[in-house]
Amino acid sequence: MTRLKADSRHLVRFKLNGKPVEAEAEPRMLLSDFLRHQLGATGTHVGCEHGVCGACTVVVDGMLTRSCLTLAAQVDGCDVKTVEGLAPSADRLGALQRAFRRNHALQCGFCTAGILMSLDHYLSRNPAPTEEEIRDLLSGHLCRCTGYTPIIRAALEAALSATATEESSDA
Amino acid sequence: MKPAAFDYLRTENVGDVLEGLTQEGGNARVLAGGQSLMAMLNMRLAKPKLLIDIMRIKEFRQIERKADAVVIGAGVRQAELLAWPDLAEALPLVALALPWVGHMQTRSRGTICGSLAHADPSAEMPLTLVALGGEVHLRSARRRRRVAAKDFFAGMMLTARADDELIEGISLPIVRDGRFAFREVARRHGDFAIVACAAMRTPSGVRLAVGGVADVPTARDWPRLEGSALDDALNGFAYDLDARDDVHATARYRRDLVRMIGRDLIREVLQ
Ligand SMILES: Cc1cc2nc3c(=O)[nH]c(=O)nc-3n(C[C@@H](O)[C@H](O)[C@H](O)COP(=O)(O)OP(=O)(O)OC[C@H]3O[C@@H](n4cnc5c(N)ncnc54)[C@H](O)[C@@H]3O)c2cc1C
Ligand code: FES
Ligand code: FES
């Protein structure tokens, strides 16, 4: 049993995009604030802080997770993935990110990190999604710029190009 | 906004949870999936002194199929139940209703029991529990007891759970050769229901359960009804639910939905 006192800071450790990280947090600190303020990982955005907008979505132990509805203390020892982990290297974009760029699936970019995390997670488990399924997934995100259509196009295109590469590498 | 300060207790042992609840009573809150509680903390609608995280308790993570019921532990997430291979066959009504609970991104964390403890009058799982006539398994340091669905919900976000009690799990009956239907109207898919209805065929006729209208999900049984007798019965039920106007819909619109969806679903299950 671990009881963390309200008025002091406690060490929180987890894996962020495969690398061990640690910093201090009061029990009430949200994972979204911990990522941004304690770890400087500002790719994860914060919109509504009540679970509705999806901007803060990350992946914790393989589960899509609103980081604004999660305490930093809750993910101690967990495996956390954020948008910073999507690109294969600092100077290259991943297939999904490239599809976003080609299809103008972002304008201001505020919602983008959360949407990318949802799509990356979903496509890795459902490589050949229907448009219907992508729309259902996107119901968990708000975007005030794009009107969603380019996002759906980018998601379907990324899925297609991923299956196409797999098929050609099989051949 | 950010939450007010609280102690955070994490444990793998049920005894620690019960002790914490006994000591702190109403000042303690169980933290399950956090999909309702964390939003309330962020908005400072709740200011507990102690949060007790139950998600690392292994014995709560089980879905157990018994001869005539399925027992779902306090740690079972909505997404896990949706992915349970027996769901459509053992609990067809849950299979119909659960995809309406929030979004993929909230079902991944939110639990079944957390939704029942939260007891939002528009929520789908309380409606399903009432429609099926399930039971809530409560446990405190003093005792264990089971409460029938119809006695569990006491009002808007109020339940029969005492401050020192934990919901350990629930049981939902397996109905053989059942026929079920579910429909909901909301502003967008994933929003809370304006009206949600579940219907099932019963040995003597039909049952309709309605959420989003009264303070608690409410079920009513009828013998096989058709034509104007069915319309009259539905109209009476719609008025008895005592709908109110709010920002989402008028009382009149809610009554209309109960009559229309009710008729469609009852026809569907009696076909
Ligand atoms: C964007 C969004 C949309 C949503 N849409 C819907 C919707 O359409 N329909 C719907 O039904 N819900 C909806 N929800 C809420 C749903 O996702 C929650 O999962 C559910 O209401 C609470 O479950 P939880 O496990 O997250 O509980 P928590 O948020 O952890 O807890 C909720 C309450 O229950 C108590 N509690 C939890 N578990 C127990 C237990 N085992 N014993 C005693 N007390 C306990 C907590 O102390 C707290 O008071 C939505 C949430 C969000 C963020
Ligand atoms: S900031 Fe977390 S969902 Fe909006
Ligand atoms: S790109 Fe601006 S909110 Fe989505």
TrEMBL record, chain A:
Highest taxon, organism lineage: Bacteria
Keywords: 2Fe-2S, Iron, Iron-sulfur, Metal-binding, Oxidoreductase
One term of GO molecular function: metal ion binding
Record keyword Transcription regulation present: no
Domain 2Fe-2S ferredoxin-type intervals: 10-86
UniProt xrefs under PANTHER family: OXIDOREDUCTASE WITH IRON-SULFUR SUBUNIT
Name assigned to this protein: (2Fe-2S)-binding protein
TrEMBL record, chain B:
Top-rank lineage group of the source organism: Bacteria
PROSITE patterns registered for this protein in UniProt: FAD_PCMH (PS51387)
Pfam families linked: CO_deh_flav_C (PF03450), FAD_binding_5 (PF00941)
Domain FAD-binding PCMH-type: 1-177
Organism field: Bradyrhizobium centrolobii
Presence of keyword Oxidoreductase: yes
Matches recorded under Gene3D superfamilies: 3.30.465.10, CO dehydrogenase flavoprotein, C-terminal domain, Uridine Diphospho-n-acetylenolpyruvylglucosamine Reductase, domain 2
Name of the protein: Carbon monoxide dehydrogenase
Keywords, alphabetical: FAD, Flavoprotein, Oxidoreductase
GO MF, any single term: FAD binding
